[in-house]
Write a structure and sequence with these properties.
By secondary structure, this protein is of the alpha+beta class. The chain folds into two domains: 2-108, no CATH class; 111-242, no CATH class. The protein contains seven helices and eight strands. It has helices at 2-9, 12-44, 55-76, 84-108, 126-132, 166-179, 202-205, and strands spanning 111-117, 120-125, 157-160, 192-194, 210-212, 215-222, 225-232, 238-242. Strands 1, 2, 3, 4, 5, 6, 7 and 8 form an eight-stranded mixed beta sheet that branches. It starts with a helix and ends in a 12-residue tail after the last strand.
């Protein structure tokens, strides 16, 4: 058996065929992954949200489709081998299954709203939102709706109508989470308000967040990470996200 392996290693024609098959597989996989990432970027996770909600699913897609699939093709390919077509079909089926799971995992975390609170900006995924509002009394406030467009800048930013003092907010959050299966307070959809002007939102008007140029920088939290977000002063649109704080710490809540 070892002798057969050594002879295979020295067979240049065999390895040329293997690498050619693996290269074709890699090229086809890269094209499929590029189309998926383009769709994620344009429709589900507009820039700069991709890295704060789709990392796990995208990582699975990249690892299986760009690494494991072509590598398995290199290992099993031998021209004229009995059962070669079946082997390649099984590899492709594995890739499609992993790709489907990865896309589903990303789909569950695509954002419906970004909620401006006194603590910062929170991402609410469509999957979690739909599960939450199924119960009576959890409807979304009148005048607030998702955008039918999923391009950059079209994920709606709403503000959460919270009590005016830190003590009252703490009590309201505790009561809400106690009565709603420990859902975070920013799931209080009946208190969502449309953001028509960023300066009109109470946390911004009270000086809770730091303004740098034409941006207000604030803590930004998603199910997969934390960063700092820049909201445009004029319309509250999410402009960019940075991992490192670009501005001084936010002052304590009033």
């Amino acid at each position: 058996m070892i002798g057969c392996m050594l002879r295979s290693l020295g067979n240049k024609s065999l390895w040329r065929d293997k690498l050619q098959a693996g290269g074709i597989h890699l090229l086809a996989s890269a094209l499929a992954v590029a189309l998926i990432l383009l769709g994620l970027h344009l429709f589900w996770f507009p820039a700069p949200l991709l890295r704060l909600g789709a990392v796990q699913g995208v990582s699975l897609i990249l690892i299986v489709d760009l690494c494991i699939g072509p590598l398995l093709t290199v290992l099993v390919f031998r021209r004229g081998k009995p059962g070669l077509v079946l082997d390649l079909c099984l590899i492709v089926a594995l890739q499609i299954a992993a790709m489907g799971y990865g896309v589903w995992a990303v789909h569950t975390q695509k954002p419906s709203f970004m909620v401006l609170t006194w603590s910062g900006l929170e991402v609410v995924s469509r999957y979690d939102l739909q599960r939450f509002v199924r119960e009576p009394g959890r409807e979304i406030a009148t005048g607030v709706r998702e955008s039918s467009l999923r391009y950059a800048g079209q994920i709606p930013v709403v503000w959460l109508d919270e009590p005016p003092t830190a003590r009252e907010r703490g009590a309201a959050r505790f009561t809400f989470e106690l009565n709603n299966s420990a859902h975070p307070y920013y799931f209080n959809t009946t208190q969502y308000r449309p953001l028509t002007a960023l300066s009109a939102a109470p946390p911004v008007a009270a000086g809770q967040f730091t303004r740098v140029g034409d941006c207000y920088w604030l803590p930004f939290t998603s199910p997969h990470g934390q960063a700092r977000a820049c909201l445009a002063e004029r319309d509250g649109r999410l402009v960019r996200v940075k991992s490192a704080p670009p501005a001084p710490e936010t002052p304590p809540a009033k």
